[in-house]
Design brief:
The chain is α/β, with parallel strands linked by helices. It has 15 helices and 7 strands. The longest helix is centred in the middle third of the chain and has 33 residues. The chain is extended.
């Protein structure tokens, strides 16, 4: 076969606009117009029918609730899949005419011409997704318990009763004696539900500890940090996935949305709040850990000293900024610990003070902090201190000024007579 008869097969670019029931597809090649458009059910059978026997292609779809299993399934068929950040795509293309067909074509065009603007999203593995589902289930129960506690407190407050402050775990025990007979049919079932939620949340806590101990031993290194427990360490490992995909640990803070947004134009560079990109749940866990580090029970460490220095600037808003700053530094530190095998040093960046060695014939001067011979200090203590004589000019300047007509008269104030 001659060299001229061999033709390379063109690369095809597919854009998928995924819906709950149907998915719209647009196929492009190197030409200006779409090669193919179609629609298929959003199922595994539909994906296998369209892409099962097709040659290797590049496929782009937006991140969503169904993008994890679809991206894994398409990669299993041998295709190159890019999961795009939906917010970046929405910022790039804004128009008054938005349809599923246009969105699919837009993804295919961006994948062919400007793939770096898609903002590729990395999904966790199937096992990691199952472990993360345990953490999410626990979070749903905790939020449900919080809503039930608030509802019971609100109902009792409306009739003039108030439950004393207590933890959410012991609320059902504390509030049960306070419920009057009129409200028992309405509130006692909720207290029974709170008791059941407490038992189920404790079961999830034990499951989280077991998962971290058996499947993710690197969480033990993260738990060396004061304020980081089994839940926060496991959620951090599962959220990051592959820690090596971050070239620098400082990028983890921006990836989790804990750095200020930037909108500089010309001479204007306003101070904006944090971007709040990334996982909301992971950001809330890091914020809770930062509150513990800065709280009364936090151990002395570099993170605590850094946060307290920011709090010294004063103001309630400044404390909130300090909490966010400590949470960002905590995320950077946790990523660094995942990559290194070194043990955690709480005061690594703080200066250490070492006491000087003192010999038997030496004494530590408490005023200067220097070690001096004992004889010299005794001699200085025995000698009387002589004040140096000031020059005449300085003595004259220190005298109070008097009036030219005569010496300054002393002003006296007469006290009022005592009341009769």
């Amino acid at each position: 076969m001659s060299q001229s008869s061999v033709t390379d097969q063109p690369v095809l670019y597919f854009g998928l606009d995924v819906g709950d029931r149907h998915t719209h597809v647009c196929c492009l090649d190197d030409g200006p117009k779409p090669v193919r458009r179609l629609k298929f059910p959003t199922t595994r059978e539909g994906l296998a029918k369209v892409f099962g026997g097709a040659p290797r292609a590049r496929i782009a779809l937006e991140v969503g609730s169904q993008s994890p299993w679809m991206s894994r399934f398409l990669r299993g068929l041998g295709h190159d899949v890019v999961v795009a950040d939906a917010r970046r795509v929405a910022q790039l293309v804004r128009g008054s005419r938005k349809t599923d067909r246009r969105d699919a074509e837009t993804l295919a065009q961006l994948l062919r011409g400007m793939p770096q603007f898609l903002g590729e999203v990395h999904h966790r593995s199937e096992a990691g997704q199952a472990d993360m589902a345990v953490i999410r289930a626990r979070d749903v129960l905790v939020k449900s318990r919080t809503k039930l506690v608030q509802h019971v407190r609100g109902v009792l407050k409306s009739v003039g009763l108030r439950v004393r402050a207590c933890s959410a775990e012991s609320f059902d025990k504390v509030a049960r004696p306070e419920i009057p007979g009129v409200l028992k049919p309405a509130l006692e079932p909720l207290l029974d539900l709170l008791e059941d939620l407490r038992k189920r949340i404790r079961a999830f806590d034990k499951q989280v500890v077991e998962i971290g101990r058996k499947r993710y031993p690197e969480t033990l290194r993260l738990r060396q940090i004061s304020g980081v427990g089994s839940l926060t360490s496991l959620a951090f490992v599962l959220t990051l996935g592959d820690a090596l995909r971050f070239s620098k640990s400082r990028k983890v803070g921006s990836w989790l949305g804990m750095v200020p947004r930037v909108q500089a134009s010309g001479d204007k560079d306003p101070a904006l709040p944090i971007s709040k990109a990334g996982s909301i749940y992971m950001r809330s866990l890091l914020t809770q850990s930062a509150h513990y580090i800065l709280g009364p029970f936090g151990e002395d460490c570099d993170l605590r000293r850094f946060g307290l220095r920011l709090c010294e600037r004063g103001g309630k808003a400044q404390k909130g900024r300090a909490v966010v700053a400590v949470a960002r530094k905590l995320a950077v530190l946790m990523h660094r610990l995942l990559l290194s095998d070194k043990p955690y040093e709480p005061l690594r960046n703080s200066p250490t003070t070492t006491e000087p060695e003192i010999r038997p014939d030496e004494v530590l001067d408490l005023k200067t902090g220097e070690v001096k011979p004992a004889d010299s200090l005794l001699r200085e203590a025995r000698e009387p201190r002589r004040q140096p004589r000031r020059p005449a000019s300085s003595r004259a300047a220190a005298r109070p000024a008097t009036d030219l007509a005569g010496p300054e008269k002393r002003k006296t104030t007469r006290r009022p007579p005592p009341p009769t």
